[in-house]
Design a protein that fits this description.
This protein has a 3-stranded antiparallel β-sheet. The protein has a 3-stranded mixed β-sheet with strand order 6-7-8. The protein has a two-stranded antiparallel sheet with strand order 4-5. Strand 7, helix 8 and strand 8 form a beta-alpha-beta unit. It is an alpha+beta fold. It is elongated. The chain starts with a helix and ends with a strand. It has 8 helices and 8 strands. It has 3 domains: 33 residues, no CATH class; 53 residues, N-terminal domain of TfIIb; 70 residues, no CATH class. The chain binds iron/sulfur cluster (SF4). Iron/sulfur cluster (SF4) binds next to helix 5.
Length: 189
């Protein structure tokens, strides 16, 4: 057995004999750490994205290997967050890869007690039918004083804080074109 090698494998000796006297770098690194490779280094490519959790909109780098998300880190180039993510953003890989993630449209009918799976086209048609029906039933050309209003008070929009500026812009345009006037976003409440 090479005793000098064993001796030098002790962290405290590495700390005082090497170039890391404060023990915050290589001296404190374990053999296991030396043997592993970060997923960010072995990824095939990196996509730029925005954290979807809240309205701050921190920049993210999404590391992809074999067309699967393997890691998400803060993007140092983002002028918003400069490489930082809060614990929610740092854990957002699970949003994509978690086994509990819902990937189908789930629907519970009025007075129903069970969830049903719907295909997306059926669900979108159901939403469109209901929006058009409510709009027809609640449309007002004039208010009670005879003022032209051309609106519906039967539809209200409430956006979530994870929507970004562009999505909110389009949602506001859509609802306004439909005649809705009650349009709000959780980030403003
Ligand atoms: S990382 Fe945190 S602060 Fe930044 S957008 Fe995501 S949830 Fe918001």
């Amino acid at each position: 057995m090479d005793l000098s090698k064993t001796f030098l494998s002790w962290p405290v000796l590495r700390q005082f004999s090497g170039n890391d006297p404060l023990g915050r770098g290589t001296a404190a690194r374990s053999g296991q750490t030396e043997r592993i490779t970060a997923r960010t280094e072995t990824a095939d490519r990196v996509a730029r994205s925005v954290c979807p959790y809240c309205a701050v909109g921190c920049g993210q780098r999404v590391y992809v290997k074999d067309e699967k998300v393997v890691q998400i880190e803060g993007d140092p180039d983002s002028p918003i967050s400069r490489g930082r993510l809060c614990p929610k953003g740092a854990a957002s890989k699970n949003l994509v890869t978690g086994p509990m993630r819902e990937s189908k449209v789930r629907y519970r009918r009025p007075f129903g007690t069970e969830w049903e799976d719907l295909d997306l086209e059926t669900a979108m048609n159901m939403v469109a039918d209901r929006v058009l029906k409510v709009r027809d039933e609640t449309w007002q050309d004039e208010d009670e004083s005879g003022n032209k209003v051309r609106r519906t008070m039967g539809i209200a929009g409430l956006g979530g804080a994870t929507l970004d500026n562009e999505e909110n812009y389009l949602i506001k345009k859509l609802w306004t074109a439909m005649g809705a006037v009650q349009i709000e976003n959780q980030a403003r409440i």
